[in-house]
Amino acid sequence: MADTPRSSAACCAPDPLCNPSRRQLLMATAGVGGALVVAAAAPFVASLTPSERARAAGAPVEVDIDKLAPGELMVVEWRGKPVWVLHRTPEMLAALARAEPDLADPASAVDTQQPDYARNTHRSLKPEYLVAVGICTHLGCSPSSAFEPGSPAMGADWPGGFLCPCHGSTFDFAGRVFKNKPAPTNLEVPPHRYMSDARLLIGADDSGVA
Fold first, then answer.
1. Active site includes 167?
2. Whether residue 18 is found in the same domain as residue 85
3. 156, part of any domain
4. Closest CA to 111 of 185, 182, 210
């Protein structure tokens, strides 16, 4: 027996997409939903402060160091990297000379790791402040503070500095790596300059380097 022809309306009745009016309604609803997503995203983008937008774009970052007490470390973000600003105490500065015999590169000979003005014992513009990228030069872990000299965990001859928890690389208070450690070079010192005694600019210096 021949099949009985069925109308297209009967065939599409269970499927709302086969109904022209329903299809138009669904398309309009989807369009409105997409517009709402865009509208919801716009306030989020607009809510970013100028400093956050600059940080995201890799622009220089201004840092207020006025309340950073001696012995304190603050971490800021520049180009997606953690940058340390350490206000070194007189004891920390004195430890730099004591550490030199045990350092792999005490004179900062690898010139790609710091600007020329940071190729000194303290690796910075001002002796009391260390500015360094807090990323180990071995495999990119973030070292931890190990400030206490002679701590039981670090050994009696430890002068104080930083310890990478991933593979044991150690750095002094200037970010210089100790000998016979996995990290091949000292920590990176980014371009920086002081806008005033209380304001630090990370990511640019007087030479125009950024």
1. yes
2. no
3. yes
4. 185
